[in-house]
Amino acid sequence: MKLFQPRLVGVRMFPWKYDNQDSIEHEFSEFVRSQNFPCVGAKSALGRGTLKVVACRSLTSSWDDVRMHDVAREWAQDYKRDPGLFRSLAFVFEGPAGLTEESFEEALWGRLQSMTDKDQWRGIAADHRVSCDPEDPHFSLSFGGEAFFAVGLHPNASRPARRFPRPAMVLNLHDQFEELRNSGRYEGLRKAILARDEQLAGTINPMLARHGEVSEARQYSGRQVSGDWECPFNGRRI
Fold first, then answer.
1. Apex 143 CA angle, 49 and 86, nearest 5
2. CA distances (Å), 166 to each of 3, 31, 104, in order?
3. How many domains does the chain have?
4. What residues does 214 pair with on adjacent strands?
5. For residues 52 and 187, which has the higher predicted lDDT (pLDDT)?
6. How remote is the C-alpha of 167 from its chain's centroid?
7. What is the DSSP track for 109-122?
8. Which residue pairs from 114-118 have beta carbons closer than 8 angstroms and sit at least 24 positions apart in sequence?
9. Does 233 reside within a domain?
10. Is residue 1 part of a domain?
11. 145 is a domain residue
């Protein structure tokens, strides 16, 4: 099977999908479906058919950045037209597989910065409900006018729940967390995820915090960082 050979579908500006799309989608779905995977929200999205998996080339390359932003922007627009809980957008990269936690973090933020730049270049305003400053406790990413929370996965992650054979970046809509809070379901779901993660790893994840306590940027890569950690992200430039 040839990897990274574009096959045209649809009529969008960057419409291709790679020849390994189906195999990567299956691989990631099986990972989420596995008994050890702790995020019950992602499992719900998979069960409902609202987990979208997009095969990409390399986490350390800008090759797919415009296409990724196209997909995230459309994902946000679709959500505005038809809101609903438990939707996840996963960009799964062919490689590289040998990244350390530090190099994965750097590459992850490189892709997020590039997507943010494209959002701004296209004249799309940030979601006013969150901050664009990665040091702000109310920080979130913003694509297509909707706030997103990112979860990084890769083979060398120290937390077992973040350990996937390929680098991956999962985007979850921030508005979904607010809907869960408003419906009184957030704390129960959070406790279930924490308990499953602790059972898998043997310890509680020290990086997890509620939105508004500390910046969620500290959680994105999955690496345990110190109090003086500086986010490798410039945010929006205006």
1. 25
2. 14, 11, 11
3. 1
4. 211
5. 52
6. 11
7. HHHHHHHHHHHHHT
8. 114/62, 114/65, 114/69, 115/65, 115/68, 115/69, 115/72, 115/141, 115/143, 116/141, 116/142, 116/143, 116/233, 116/235, 116/236, 117/237, 118/65, 118/66, 118/69
9. no
10. no
11. yes
- Residue range 124-155, pLDDT digits in tens: 999 999 999 999 999 999 999 999 999 999 99
* Residue 100 to residue 156: CA distance in whole angstroms: 6
Buried b (16+ CB within 10 A) or exposed e, 43-57: bbbbeeeebbbbbbb
Please tell me the total number of residues recorded for the chain in this structure.
Answer: 238
Omega before residue 15 within 30° of 0, cis: no
- C-alpha 69/C-alpha 49 separation (Å) is 21
138 phi and psi angles, rounded to 5 deg: -105, 20
**Residue 10 located in a structural domain:** no
Instruction: Please give the model's pTM, rounded to 2 decimal places.
Output: 0.89
User: Phi-psi region for residue 208, left (φ > 0), alpha (ψ -120 to 50) or beta?
Assistant: beta
Query: Two tokens at 19?
Result: 């020849």
Question: What confidence tens digit (pLDDT) does each residue in 150-208 have?
Answer: 999 999 999 999 999 999 999 999 887 777 677 776 677 678 777 887 888 788 776 77
Give the domain range for residue 152. Answer: 21-219
Which stretches does DSSP call E strand in the chain? 51-58, 88-95, 141-143, 146-153, 168-173
Cβ distance 180 to 85 under 8 Å? yes
Dist CA 199 CA 106 (whole Å): 29
Closest CA to 236 of 152, 163, 136: 136
